[in-house]
Amino acid sequence: MTNLQSVKKFYLTTAIDYANGSPHIGHAYEKILADTIIRFKRLEGIECYFLTGLDEHGQKVAETAQKQSTLPQALCNRVADDFKNLCARLAVNYDDYIRTTEERHKVVVREVLQKLHDGGEIYRAEYAGLYSTRAERFVQEKDKIDGRWPDDIGEPIELKETNYFFRLSHYQGWLVDFLNKNQDFVVPAFRQKQVLEFLKEPINDLCISRPKSRLSWGIELPFDSEYVTYVWFDALVNYISAAGYGENRFEDYWPADYHIVGKDILVPAHSVYWPIMLHALEIPQPKHLFAHGWWLAKGGEKMSKSLGNSVQPLDYVDLYGADAFRFFLLREMIAGQDGNFSHDLFVSRYNGDLANDLGNLISRLTNMVGRYCSGKIPAPATEESLDQDIQESAQRLIQSVRMEYGKFAFHMGLEQIFDFVGRLNRYIEMRAPWQLAKQGDNSSVKLLNTTLSFVAKGVHIVAELLRPIMPKICVEILHRLGATITDTWENLSWATSLVGNEILSGEILFPKVEWGE
């Protein structure tokens, strides 16, 4: 058997998107968050595997295909292209894209179902109750919020039929005990408390089938050809089917280090169904579930097409570029909590942090090195307390940002980086290289060279620390500095020399925009 510890990759997944709609800001954020985590881990020297994909079965997909006078598979193919295009446009570089209509996935779903059935974990019974077409599951009165059915459930209908059930309730006590012993299983911590609160009430066994007489678009049960698999049971299995469940390579990936999911699908699907399914199959649990929040429109409303307040991610990419959009989402949302999005807020952050601060800093550096140093980064020639302060601040910044990124606190890392960018701009103002160049004496030239050398080093460190979040523009910044792009941050430090590098000019990285644009 392979030594798990020697080959285990950092395995991270997003939720697989449902093939019943077009990409929105929530999809974009989840992909960007996951991609940023992976880029950071790789810069830390960690081998990674990043999975995303598409959930293609279920009643809503079948109904949408019928309304559009097309076949479900044709609909899914088109939607898969839309989501893959979203990832490409957002510079999201996944390692695998799993589609639940792929045979590699179907094989594992059938194997899992058969194993659970053979072990007595799945039984057949008649059930009468309330069924939510929107959520594609049976619901109970306890699912109401403040006496009303939530939007993701809609108005359920009375339904009576014979189906197959997974003995979910049998493991409720085990799950409560597991969560109490593993208090960081669900991140952030307040989400785990929500799961435990949900588990204070008895849970029912999970209906894991749909009769073909009602729904044929799904994976056929291996033990009864008259039924297909419930879409959630099918979808959750993607995390192990993509990782090679049943193959020798499975232990190179599993357990997953993080499942990144939205808070709306944490309970019960990911925090109740999935851990119990794995436990019944005797498969180790993932290390963590990370639940992120929603993007809210002005006034705190949840974004939705029906309210007319949704954001089309690619519209912002077209206007401002993927890097600026990635930066804004990670700067404005505290991972795990809700975030606010408005056009005014985006423009304010873009013009302030990117155009005025970072963009202006790079432009000033390029112009001054070109004008005063023949286009080549000079060597530092002296060092005063002001210079030492910049150097020490840069060294502290590297360690602090790496620590914040490691906690997925990207908003904090970005705040610290742009505080340092502001410090570099103030350093330039205090030194006034244009005045030093005019004076021209030996002492002034030394200060001039030191200032521009230190600013170049500071920009180099900023670009490296921003690279997981703004990959394309940061590579461009490093190229303009003539800097080598590092594979890992192990040797990222102030000691890296840029002396003698030819500094290149180019287009304005962040053109300032007007409020109405």
Write a structural description.
Helices cover 48% and strands 14% of the residues. It has 18 helices and 16 strands. The protein has helices at 4-7, 25-43, 59-67, 72-89, 103-118, 172-181, 189-198, 231-236, 238-241, 266-280, 313-320, 322-332, 343-372, 385-406, 410-431, 433-439, 442-466, 471-481; strands at residues 10-14, 17-18, 48-55, 96-99, 122-132, 137-139, 157-166, 186-187, 206-207, 209-211, 220-221, 224-229, 258-262, 289-292, 295-296, 339-340. The strands form four sheets. Strands 1, 2, 3, 4, 8, 13 and 14 form a seven-stranded parallel β-sheet that branches.
The number of distinct structural domains comes to 2
**What's the CATH architecture of the largest domain?**
3-Layer(aba) Sandwich
- Which overall shape is indicated by the principal axes computed on the Cα atoms? elongated
Report the sheet-strand fraction. Answer: 5-15%
Helix and strand layout, with pairings?
Blueprint lengths: L3 H4 L2 E5 L2 E2 L6 H19 L4 E8 L3 H9 L4 H18 L6 E4 L3 H16 L3 E11 L4 E3 L17 E10 L5 H10 L4 E2 L1 H10 L7 E2 L1 E3 L8 E2 L2 E6 L1 H6 L1 H4 L16 E5 L3 H15 L8 E4 L2 E2 L16 H8 L1 H11 L6 E2 L2 H30 L12 H22 L3 H22 L1 H7 L2 H25 L4 H11 L36
Parallel strand pairs: 1-3, 1-13, 2-3, 3-4, 8-14, 13-14, 15-16
Antiparallel strand pairs: 5-6, 5-7, 7-9, 10-12, 11-12
Describe the structure in brief.
The chain has 517 residues and is an alpha/beta fold. The protein contains 18 helices and 16 strands.
